[in-house]
Amino acid sequence: MTDSPGSPDLRFPTSLGTSTADEIRLLGHDLTAELMGEVGFGELAFWLVAMRRPSPGEVRVLEAVLVALADHGFTPTAIAARLTYLSAPDSLQGALAAGLLGGGSRFLGVTEDCGQWLHAVLDDDPAPEDADDLEAWDALALAAVRRTKDAGRFVPGIGHPVHKQGDPRTPVLLRIAEEEGLRGPHLRLFEAVGRTHEQVLGRRLPLNGAGVCGAALADLGLPVEMLRGFALLARAAGLLGQIAEERRRPIGMDAYLAVDRNAVYVDPETTGSDPESEAP
Fold this sequence. Notes:
Elements: E1 17-19, E2 24-26, E3 29-30, H1 31-35, H2 41-50, H3 56-69, H4 76-87, H5 92-101, H6 110-124, H7 134-150, H8 169-179, H9 185-196, H10 198-201, H11 209-219, H12 227-248, H13 252-260
Antiparallel strand pairs: 1-2, 2-3
Helix pairs in contact: 3-8, 3-11, 3-12, 4-5, 4-12, 4-13, 5-12, 6-9, 6-11, 6-12, 7-9, 8-11, 9-11
């Protein structure tokens, strides 16, 4: 006979949330008496993942990351959310999910990709003993960028489709981390990549704000394989704002019609991208 729900012989261990008829507990604390009104949402997200309560400095850095990643205008994730809401206004969750599903290697996923890349470099080659030894950091970064290029891969976290001369989020997050004593090896290595990559790649690219967010989160000791989750957590707030604005000031229909009414048939046997240039 199988145990019935609630049977004392059936156990599913968790360190997160549990509830009884008259109490909800989270992370070993009474939710209503100890957490509600006392713990911020970003702080709670950190605690849930890391299984430790962050320091005030760590909370400040994390909150800065969440704000930095919340919204970046009409990105593909925002457009996907708005067009899904246009198609199914009865499904707010579908519109939100559509935007989150677009968080990949080109948008949002850079946060995790960069954090993982930096972490892997530091696993192979430990950080310089003197954290202020810029020459040692530059040598480490230069070798890592060269290995990545020789392997035919891109160095994540450098370059930006809009901020060609510099991502304004990057120096601010570096400053906040420095002020809180949390400018650790991942951020220092990322800064060194910014100083040295041109020697390998032949051109200077800005340090992407999403990339510096990944470095900052890794320096907080968060699992690098979970960093995309924090980017998605941040973007969920931005997408809610996008959907709310779509309700107030819709552009979804215009975006759809702009593409649909300007669609031009192209013979699949042609090779060029301009249908008019290939007309007989």
